Recover the amino acids of this structure.
């Protein structure tokens, strides 16, 4: 798929065009061109170290989503992306090169055009990584919090003073 088509699809999903979407499009473009196929279920897993706009491009272009459990966010504040293919049992890491953002005098539009004019290899440090994806998503039962009465995933319940409670109630109870 051409970069313009990928940008159009990602921008429609995200809601606006921005440098972050361009970065995510380049991650997805690299993955799609190197044997990482769009994921209807959990065949592909993205472990991202950022929560910026780029992640939306991965969701729509690679099929990695929070809801399916094949998009994992690690809150490190880094534009790094680990992509795993369960089908091909391989992994790749793309880390934004520090040199790519050296010219902060570029306008928003100039940054977008700069990114889209480059190959992913020019923008990221890319290396194969050990095939070690997170486990498949696990569907859990929901149980009632004894304090607020709201349904909560069983694994997120806290037991405090012989009461099963959700995390917000636990935090409030502990004050």
């Amino acid at each position: 798929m051409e970069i313009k088509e990928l940008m159009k699809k990602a921008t429609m999903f995200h809601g606006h065009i921005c440098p972050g979407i361009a970065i995510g499009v380049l991650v997805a473009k690299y993955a799609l061109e190197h044997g990482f196929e769009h994921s209807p279920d959990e065949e592909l897993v993205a472990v991202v170290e950022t929560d910026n706009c780029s992640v939306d491009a991965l969701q729509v272009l690679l099929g990695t989503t929070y809801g399916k459990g094949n998009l994992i966010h690690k809150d490190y504040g880094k534009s790094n992306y680990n992509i795993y293919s369960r089908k091909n049992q391989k992994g790749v890491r793309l880390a934004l090169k520090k040199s790519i953002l050296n010219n902060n005098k570029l306008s928003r539009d100039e940054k977008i055009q700069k990114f889209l004019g480059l190959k992913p290899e020019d923008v990221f440090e890319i290396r194969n990584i050990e095939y070690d994806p997170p486990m498949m998503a696990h569907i859990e039962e929901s149980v009632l919090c004894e304090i607020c009465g709201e349904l909560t995933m069983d694994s997120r319940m806290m037991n405090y003073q012989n009461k099963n409670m959700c995390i917000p109630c636990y935090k409030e109870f502990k004050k």
Summary: The chain has a mean pLDDT of 93. Strands lie at 44-48, 71-73, 80-85, 90-96, 124-129, 142-144, 151-153, 158-160, 163-165.
